[in-house]
From TrEMBL:
<dbReference type="Pfam" id="PF00724">
    <property type="entry name" value="Oxidored_FMN"/>
</dbReference>
<protein>
    <recommendedName>
        <fullName>NADH:flavin oxidoreductase/NADH oxidase N-terminal domain-containing protein</fullName>
    </recommendedName>
</protein>
<feature type="domain" description="NADH:flavin oxidoreductase/NADH oxidase N-terminal">
    <location>
        <begin position="8"/>
        <end position="358"/>
    </location>
</feature>
<dbReference type="InterPro" id="IPR045247">
    <property type="entry name" value="Oye-like"/>
</dbReference>
<dbReference type="InterPro" id="IPR013785">
    <property type="entry name" value="Aldolase_TIM"/>
</dbReference>
<dbReference type="InterPro" id="IPR001155">
    <property type="entry name" value="OxRdtase_FMN_N"/>
</dbReference>
């Protein structure tokens, strides 16, 4: 085995925790929980298999933190709102820790893009009274269409018009995030990630296109990020200094893949507002971490946020091989990388990258990432001959 990617495989101190390397599994929704949100044994096996592949940390799929308050976004989404949820997550956390891998639970509130079937007839909530254009809830491969027995075009999910949250609602939802974080810690997690990305509630506040407020929670970058900062403060008060708290940010939303912040200057203002906040680290979500889609500067968004916040950055998006990961770290864009689809599809990604083994990643991109029973069987490197390989 060669020692490819020395920076990637060096340890990283992230707030109160130390990762054995800088490879993080990005949060990936699987809809594998019980209908009541309890994490399943299948989830424990899925996460443990990826921990065994040598990751520094896993960020779980988006998890709703509160029953009520219209936070659940997906059918079969896991929750961290009840004692049964805590017991389910404890099995996941213990299985991951057995492989010397950290795990944090991603806490999310769906806001205006919750699947209407999760809302019990209530309207969705958002920063302002806006109306999402809707989106296709599932992936669009023929393979998935086939296993779901869907004939014709993919069904597009539409959402009702959103109710604008009042300030007292904002505080109640932030309290819900804190209670969810306390339960995640009770389950043994190393901390939590607050989902401020990808079109969900906190993103709807951070993105000026969906936040039309004129009070303290809208109208400027500092006001747009205030809700996410409040959530961080309440979580820190609930779980103390010994646990990791990460904030995930993005330009895109699930119902808007043309999303763009108003310039790198906007990222700089968001970064400056997060300096000295309760967050230990930031996490940039995208499909290409280096492409900022802006005209005012070519600097990658994660680099601008890292520079202005002074916080460690986990960069995500389009990192499929070791060389790209190493460059993300040595270029000043990031302190760790989060890998989504490649680890989804390929539990031993870290092993292969470290070995320097040539590997064609693309056949595993999406094709085998549909259901765990399939990916356990198929997304496995045929050339992996050393099952006793010690995790880096
Ligand atoms: C099927 C699927 C599910 C996802 N679920 C989540 C999620 O629950 N939370 C989240 O923040 N991002 C989620 N994402 C976004 C990924 O974390 C990541 O940003 C994206 O896949 C790009 O990274 P990659 O190029 O390494 O795959 C999801 C992406 C996919 C493809």
């Amino acid at each position: 085995m060669t020692d490819a990617c020395p920076t990637l495989f060096s340890p990283l101190v992230l707030g109160p925790v130390t990762l054995k390397n800088r490879i993080v599994m990005a949060p990936l929704t699987r809809q594998m929980a019980e209908p009541d949100g309890t994490p399943t044994d299948e989830m424990a096996a899925y996460y443990a298999r990826r921990a065994r592949g040598g990751l520094g940390m896993i960020i779980t799929e988006g998890t709703y933190e509160q029953d009520g308050w219209q936070s659940k976004a997906y059918l079969s989404q896991p929750g961290i709102a009840t004692d049964a949820h805590v017991a389910g997550w404890k099995k996941v956390v213990d299985a991951v820790h057995a492989h010397d891998c950290k795990i944090i639970v991603q806490l999310m509130h769906g806001g205006r893009v919750c699947d209407p079937r999760c809302l019990n007839g209530e309207p969705p909530v958002s920063a302002s009274a806006t109306h999402s254009g809707g989106w296709v809830l599932y992936t669009d491969t023929d393979y998935e269409k086939n296993i779901r027995a869907i004939d014709g075009p993919w069904p597009k999910v539409t959402f009702g018009p959103a109710r604008a949250l009042r300030v007292d609602d904002i505080h109640a939802i932030a309290d819900g995030f804190a209670a969810g974080a306390a339960r995640a810690v009770a389950a043994g997690a190393d901390g939590v990630e607050v989902h401020g990305a990808n079109g969900y509630l906190l993103w709807q506040f951070i993105n000026p296109k969906t936040n039309l407020r004129t009070d303290d929670f809208g109208g400027s970058p500092e006001n747009n990020i205030r809700f996410a900062k409040l959530v961080g403060d309440k979580i820190r008060a609930a779980i103390g200094p010994g646990k990791l708290i990460v904030l995930r940010l993005s330009q895109d939303g699930v119902d808007d893949f043309t999303g763009a912040w108003p310039g790198v200057a906007y990222a700089e203002a968001i970064g400056a507002a997060l300096k000295g906040s309760a967050y230990d680290a930031l996490h940039w979500a995208s499909f290409d971490y280096a492409a900022n889609r802006q005209t005012d500067s070519a600097e990658p968004m994660p680099a601008a946020l890292r520079r202005t916040s002074g916080l460690p950055m986990i960069a995500n998006g389009g990192i499929f091989d070791g060389a790209t990961a190493e460059t993300a770290l040595t270029s000043g864009a990031a302190d760790a990388v989060a890998i989504g689809r490649a680890i989804f599809a390929h539990p031993d990604w870290a092993y292969i990258v470290r070995s320097g083994m040539p590997y064609d990643w693309m056949p595993f991109d999406r094709k085998y990432v549909i259901r765990p029973p399939l990916d356990y069987g198929l997304a496995y490197p045929l050339a992996l001959t050393d099952p006793k390989w010690p995790a880096p």
